Amino acid sequence: MTELVATACLMFTLTTTIIACLDSHEVDPKFLVPFVVFIITFLFLIVTVPLSGGHMNPLITFIATLKGLLTLSRALIYMLAQCMGSIIGFFIIKTVMEPKLVQIYSLGGCAISGIKHQEALLLEFSCTFVVLFIGMTLAFDKKKSKDLGLPVVCLVVAGAMGLVVFVSITVTGQPGYAGVGLNPARCLGSALLYGGPLWNGHWVFWVGPFLACMGYYAVSINLPKQGLS
């Protein structure tokens, strides 16, 4: 229930805030998006990590399962809750948002615009891998997490997400590309509620991140347990 409610609230808060930034009169409003991702992600993590682990994303649940931190049955329940939460969040957005903004920003969903599918796939893989390597390596290390404390761990994870969103936006140079998805549940919820262009290349937002999860897992099992002393 925590994962469902948290994911729904995250989708609603994050998407509406990003659209508000993009619809502002700033010179280049899309550069506000990484800061929005960082701040909102941090707030949701600091609240939900003690409750359910603060996944709110099938990718985090998947990698936690690979590392033996979740049972398969619990992981499936988490993923189902996350997808349902995303659908609920985007349903609320579609209901309350001005129809003109819904059309302009495709409900704030994951869209591939201005770049090829293979380029988007490479970005999804690379950016997801960076988030996992920076954020999850720390988050899954119980000793380091305890030493640093929950706020610092959440700052690192949220910072990694904000960083890769910034990189994905700037590296393409395409004004119509809103950056990496990083969360297949978010992409699924918006596609189901809006449809149309959001189904174009939708597979990229699943295949790229899950390949990154498997790649990260293969690397992480060979990482040393302790650093140099």
TrEMBL record:
It comes from the Eukaryota. Pfam families: MIP. One of its GO terms (cellular component) is membrane. One of its GO terms (molecular function) is channel activity. The chain crosses the membrane at residues 31-54, 75-93, 121-140, 152-171, 203-223. Its main location: membrane. Keywords: Membrane, Transmembrane, Transmembrane helix, Transport. It is found in: Membrane. The keyword Transmembrane helix applies. Coiled coil: none annotated. It is a multi-pass membrane protein. Belongs to the MIP/aquaporin (TC 1.A.8) family. This is Putative major intrinsic protein. It comes from Lupinus albus (White lupine).
